Structure formats: structure tokens, C-alpha cells
Amino acid sequence: MVTPVRVVIALCLFAPFVAMLWVGSYAKADPAFIGIPFFYWYQMAWVLISTVLTMVAYQLWQRDQRARAAAKGGAAE
Description:
Number of helices: 2
Structural class: mainly alpha
Oligomer: single chain
Largest sheet: none
């Protein structure tokens, strides 16, 4: 079943793939950050962003599963 929460979960997990596969958006040297070319620090930033997005997706999934279990348990009573 597709719910708004599951759509948000999918977007959180899909965003890093899109960001990394769209190479034209970051295939350049400027702007440099503390001497590191943009190409490299952009990718490293996405490692951290991906971690946060995966944690958000996991928390949303856990909340969704608890809500489904409560709804299923409440309907059985």
C-alpha cells in the first residue's frame, strides 16, 4: 500500500542516487572548500547527507510499522 509516509521514505532513499548519478551537476573544481575541489567535497558531503536521510527513512519506517501493528491489533479487538 502506498502511503504519504512511504513516499517520503522512498524519496529519502532515492535522493542520494540521483545526486550522485547526475555527474554534470558537480563535475567541476570550483568552488573549492579549504583547498578541496568541489568534485570531492560534494561527494563527501553526500556521504553525510545519505547517512542522515537513511536514518530519517528508518525512523519513519519504524513509526509506520508500529502504526500499522496498532491499527491491526486495534481492529482485531
